[in-house]
Design goal:
This protein is of the alpha+beta class. 35% of the residues lie in helices and 24% in strands. It starts with 5 loop residues before the first helix and ends in an 11-residue tail after the last helix.
Length: 426
Amino acid sequence: MAKPSPEQLARINQLARVPLTEDETYVFPAKLVGDQIIPRRFYRLTPNFLRKMAVQAREGVSLLLDHSWSNLGVMTIPLGRTFDSRLQMDGDELALYADHYMKLGQEVGDIKIDQIADGIDAGTIFDTSIGFTVSSQTCSICGQEYFGGSCPHIRGREYDSKLCTVDINDGDLMENSLVFDGAYPGAGVVGMSSTAETQSTVKWEALSEDAKSLPSGGRVFYSFSGKSGLDGFVIRKEKNNEAETQAGGDDTVNEEQKAALAAAQNQANALAKANGVLGQVRAALGVENDADIVSSLTTLSSQAADGLVYKTKVTEQACGAGVRALGEAFNVESMKAVLSQLPIAEIEKIATSYEAQAQAALGNGGRHTQGDDPDLPAGALNSRAPGNPQANGGDKTPEQLRALAREEARSALKNTGYSHLMKEEK
């Protein structure tokens, strides 16, 4: 049975309600998860989320059997708990490890803790699988939220030779379970002594403004904010006995370092959100690369300027027609303020209605001759206003046409919520 070291027992007893002894405490380390793609499911946990999980594992999450909480009707009581964690570089993989403890001599339901410990020692209980919640999962292609958004991509498919995955950026670690077949490759119980002695832990350092200072082979995470600008953080490998771990509860980390690590976490989270926003901007503009965003915005700005000029022209035409139709009763400045809030298509409709009303007020407009016939239309010399063969009014009188045009103008304004601007006749 693996017993805790004095340092481990001291950390365990910070979590235990009643102090445990070395003889009644069983400990084992396990690899929880890493930042590689989960096969067949095409999910990937980002380094930002792994760092958050490392802090939560150090604070202590439950050790279960086979995710019992997800099975209705099955009693869920933890068999143990995590009490320490570390991030390690396993080749190109950033992996999260955690130390677990159980109290020997206990029974949980029909399960004896000593039997579980014997199975771990014998190597017959070896695979593990984490349970966690997710609050942000984005598409690796466009950066948008994969579920419930406008992302058009399908995980597991390739787009321009790039595999689409769902990147899990944030959430919470709930538990780690002993299972018979875990989903993440390599997750499970690891050697009791080799891990702490031979694996490389991860130390985060601020990247100097001098780009030449970047260590060869180092991994860099950038974050950008309006307050701090662009900041970089370097992952540097060091042996466990030489490096300080990043979790906030480590006694070897002073307050200043804790604050720096917390700031790095916040900045990394801000970077993830910024990448998501950039993906949405690319999708909205219909461009593939960030470099094309500026040129697309420049084109849109030019088109918007042209549209503003045309809208001003249409507004002036509408107000001119309003003055011809209603005379001094037409409030030009008020109407311009209203029309500035409307789309161009609505302004054009209102202008057409006012123009029809203005022509009716001026006697229908148009010429009164037909072809080369110089004779005036019938009724041109009597008391009635002459008709206009080119108009669509049929046999309607000018008064009827004015009333019809006024009603059309009022209807157009009513459709946009501004019918009160059309004054009633006294």
